[in-house]
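name: query_chain
kind: protein
chains: 1
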Amino acid sequence: MTPSILYPDGARESPSPLQDRQFAVDLNLDQVFASVCEGREQLDLLSLFYSPLHDVDSVVYRHQVIADLERPQVLAAVQSFGHGMRQVRELLRSMRSLHNHWQQRRLFIDAVSAYCDAVGSLTDKLVRMGPASRGLDAFTKYLSAYRSSAGFTSLAEDAGVVLSALAQIRYTLHIKGTRVAVSQYLGEPDYAQEVETIFAKFREMPAREFLATFRNTLDMDPVEGQILDRVARLNPGPFGALDRYFQAHRDFFDSGVTAFDRDAQFYLAYLGHIAPLRSSGLPFCYPHLSDRPSSSRVKAVFDLALADKVNQPGSSRPNVVTNDLHLGPNERIVVVTGPNSGGKTTFARALGQVHYLASLGLLVPANEADLVLADAVFTSFGQEEQLGTPRSHLEDELVHLHEVIAQASPRSVVVMNESFSSTTLRDAAVLGRSVLAQLLESGSLCIYVTFVDELAEANGETVSMVVTVHPEDPVLRTYKVVRKPPEGLAYAAALAERYGLTYGAVQERVGQ
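structure:
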């Protein structure tokens, strides 16, 4: 069985990629994944980022591989292999664009040689370094056996024999006007050295430059192609061997090697994406996951998509505020309130991101994280009402939440942002209490950003978290989210007092 560095026990059957990806749009993870996969589109990595894992051992399996890749020597070896495989694919792509039969065959051998070099180099390096992870250790053993196999040995050695025979070919060109004749080399003098000697003196004299730009293309022009075809006719042995080599090895890729190339890029792309953020001081960690709901703890979590936007090359630590969350075993509902533009939605997105990234077996944007391994991350973010749709915005919300509640389990995570904002405060409170009660019954973890403060005190299993403001100036946001009762009226009173809008101030002004 071909080993995999993505799935334990060599399982190649990956989970089917998620088709409904609205949650990623709501959490801005679609932007993160698009950036991570940029430049690697031919490998279809994006589907891997929409294929979450569902058991803790599979997550630990990936953590072990990442830990190996965080060793500089292992990382450099796998990166070098990736560069080599990219060169192989580029050579094959160039080969398919050529028109001359023999030139295609010759470039094919270059691609095979690059492939053999990449495989041999990676094998030697991995054997020498001895990976600790189950995934890379199994692949190292597989790669060693593959390189020692008769098939790979023939692939590499036969290429050398063919190239050596082609290198021995010599022929003569007779050029007269527009006529070109190709014949066997019969010991005629080589005039190349004589021509160079005659023109060597001109190199010592300054001269004006008369530069012309020529089209630089790998493909031969018709004259070059005809010359090569005639050389092949004069040397049927070496060129016949070249043709036979192509026919014998045209499907030279090993499925295990190509699978490793793609799977490794999944890790390398993500690690490369977060490297600048880690260098700037933002924390990433290996989350500790449980397959059953228990207490949850996340320390110094932040919004990865937001950090990507504000982080600039060469800058110091980005101005990204981190926050904490600590929930007891029976605390499953988190209601986030506070003033607008204070970071409520950013905090909720960050928690949704960290749970989903954890389900991919990746490092998460936090200093520490103890989480349930989510079987699904659901979102309900307010969308603009679309003209011409048969249902109202509120009806769309209710239908979507009904579907979420029907699917939610104790291992699900639900992120709701300003739900029912299109209705009255009273109705929003009634609907919000109903939804929270049903989610509480399902056992799901819910993060609910809302303007309805009373939902934060719905029951004893609901945790209230509040976006804080500067104690002396409520207009200034701190973007810190802390666990405490809602203070919406306090903010309103402070703002009214600052701007002279208290009842007494307004009454006095009207009286004047």
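note: Residues 280-511 form a domain with the Rossmann fold fold (CATH 3.40.50.300).
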